Amino acid sequence: MNENKYIIKNAFVFDGLGSDKFQADILIEDGIIKEIGNLENIDCKIIDIKGNAIAPGFIDVHSHDDIALIVYPEMDFKVMQGVTTVINGNCGNNVIPRQGTLERWQTRYPDNPIPEWNSYSDYIELINSIKPSVNSAILIGHGSVRNGSGLKNQKRLPNQNEYDEMKGWIKEGMEAGAVGFSTGLIYEPGRYSSTDEIIELTKVISPYDGVYSSHMRNEGNNLLLSIEETIKIGQGAETSIEISHHKVSGKDNWGLSEKSTGMINDARDMGINVHSDQYPYIAGQSALFAIHQNNAFNEGEGGLGTVSGDKVIIAHAPIMPEYEGKKLSDICDDFDLPEQQTAEKILSQDPHVLAIIEGMCEEDLVTILSNPHTMIGSDGVPASGANPHPRLYGCFPRVLGKYAREEKIISMEEAIYKMTGLPAKKFNLNDRGTIEIGKAADLVVFNPDTVIDLATYENPRVYPEGIVHVIVNGTFVVNNSKHTGSRVGKIIKRSS
Ligand SMILES: [Zn+2]
User: Fold this and answer.
1) Is there a single domain that holds both residue 22 and residue 73?
2) Are residues 287 and 344 in the same domain?
3) Where in the sequence is the domain holding 323, given as residue range(s)?
4) Contact residues for 258 (Cβ-Cβ < 8 A; gap 6+)
5) Can you tell me whether residue 443 is helix, strand or coil?
6) Ligand 1 mean position to 108 CA, how many Å?
7) 477 alpha carbon to ligand 1 midpoint, in Å?
8) What is the distance in A from the centroid of ligand 1 to the CA of 381?
9) Ligand 1 centre and the CA of 171: distance in Å?
10) Which of 134, 38, 20, 87 is nearest to 488 (CA)?
């Protein structure tokens, strides 16, 4: 019998287009969906899923797995939650040029040597030879190319040479199949770049139908101005626009989501192709350096809004792991220093600390999730040895279990659409994201009555419940909620 031909029987199909679920069998052959319907008398293996749900594999539009694909090729934290494709290179941070990005990745994975590559094609070849358990698509990172050009943290427009160099890398990436270009404008070096610089660079991706994806300058009191800037950049460069991890940060700003989603809707009414993505938690995660640099511990105008030390938990401290899991306010007590100075002291000992910050509210989360133009992206950061944000393990099942089934904020069909059909269309991954004949067999079988995240802030490295099988390119990567060890993923290039 052809092992690469099988039928998934008795499925409730969520097709990824938002249609009402329907009962059907699905024939898969050589990694492709061949037939959908009531399938009888076909000579092949039958996998009866007994009324469980089947959906397209989830597409995590906001991933930071560029190096995790190399270091943790089984990618358990993603596939165990039903993710079959990760979109990497977010927040301005990707892999090209290698010298513009190496330091950051080394601090995340201090025990793992990072292999060599000289070009996007090299990196793609490397990942394809490693064969991680998930597929990946790539965004080119503004921060990486700005660092690589030598412009780094200088607050000025690039000169002609620097522009040429940066544009060269961006063009090379798009030629190699990248899906777009990302910025991280609260971080170094992105925060030193002007709107004009970003428009000029983003123009390079326009002929390729690339997406401009941005961690905006401000998610706090200037959230609306930042959305305006992001839309202006996309319009100026004539590209599709993605607002990364759409949120309202800082208590004083809560409620702004009505206006921020309204701006997205208004822009779309004017024909501008803008979307956003979101993780379903009211705490975020960022570099303590960036939190401090954005003045979050003072009543500042910073990009994160104002946060207090009891809402900040140290997640990852590669040099001083004894800080991990502690609240900043408790460390303040130990040091007998105010928050700003405590953060400075920690950073002087360990500059690459990551922290979890609880700065959002449930009402804004729900407003943003309810918007039909919001996708799901985990923003998980898989650093070694760390206490990661639980979104790394639980993002997608949490949307399905908590927000669709339990709280009915959106329907299960809509939730699946936000994770599959919508992102596939947005990022030009034309052979993924829906259950239709001819599409790649990236699929997830789950129990809609039990699916839920189990990862918590205290205990984040826990797989979710209710994800039964995960199929990548036709192969079972998760079988009966166990990773099979199969590694069949590849870099997916933008459909042309
Ligand atoms: Zn970000």
Assistant:
1) no
2) yes
3) 283-359
4) 367
5) strand
6) 16
7) 28
8) 10
9) 23
10) 134
Of 304, 327, 359, the position where a domain reaches its end is 359
Instruction: Name the residue among 424, 470, 445, 441 with its Cα closest to residue 34.
Output: 441
Residues 214 and 172 in one domain: yes
- C-alpha of residue 259 to centroid of ligand 1, in Å: 21
- CA–centroid distance, residue 218 to ligand 1 (Å): 11
Residues forming a β-bridge with 10: none
Q: Does residue 152 fall inside a structural domain?
A: yes
Domain annotation covers residue 432: no
The phi and psi torsions of 9 (rounded to 5 degrees) equal -105, 150
CB 478 within 8 Å of CB 467 = yes
Here the CATH number for the domain that contains residue 17 is: 2.30.40.10
CA of 184 to the centre of ligand 1 (A): 6
Q: Distance, CA 451 to ligand 1 centroid (Å)?
A: 27
Q: What whole-number distance in Å separates Cα of residue 130 and Cα of residue 127?
A: 5
**How many domains, the chain?**
3
**Ligand 1 centre from 63 Cα, in Å?**
9
Nearest to 93 by CA among 170, 145, 32, 159: 145
Distance (angstroms) between ligand 1 centre and the Cα of 422 equals 20
Q: Give whole-number Cα distances, 483 to 297, 355, 448, in Å.
A: 42, 29, 20
| Domain identity same for 162 and 296 | no
Amino acid at 234: G
Report CA(213)–ligand 1 centroid distance (Å): 10
Distance in Å, CA 297 to ligand 1 centroid:
19
CA of 291 to the centre of ligand 1 (A): 12
Task: Tell me the CA–centroid distance for residue 226 and ligand 1, in Å.
Answer: 14
For residue 83, the CA-to-ligand 1 centroid distance in Å is: 19
Residue 489 lies in a domain: no
- In this structure, are 371 and 443 located in the same domain? no
Q: Is residue 26 part of a domain?
A: yes
Residues 350 and 364 in one domain: no
CA of 91 to the centre of ligand 1 (A): 5
User: Residue 358 in contact with residue 283, Cβ under 8 Å?
Assistant: yes
- pLDDT tens digit at each of 496 positions of the chain: 677 999 999 999 999 999 999 999 999 999 999 999 999 999 999 999 999 999 999 999 999 999 999 999 999 999 999 999 999 999 999 999 999 999 889 888 888 999 999 999 999 999 999 999 999 999 999 999 999 999 999 999 999 999 999 999 999 999 999 999 999 999 999 999 999 999 999 999 999 999 999 999 999 999 999 999 999 999 999 999 999 999 999 999 999 999 999 999 999 999 999 999 999 999 999 999 999 998 898 876 678 888 899 999 999 898 999 999 899 999 999 999 999 999 999 999 999 999 999 999 999 999 999 999 999 999 999 977 668 999 999 999 999 999 999 999 999 999 999 999 999 999 999 999 999 999 999 999 999 999 999 999 989 999 999 999 999 999 999 999 999 999 999 999 999 7
Q: Are residues 442 and 318 in the same domain?
A: no
Q: Are residues 479 and 339 in the same domain?
A: no
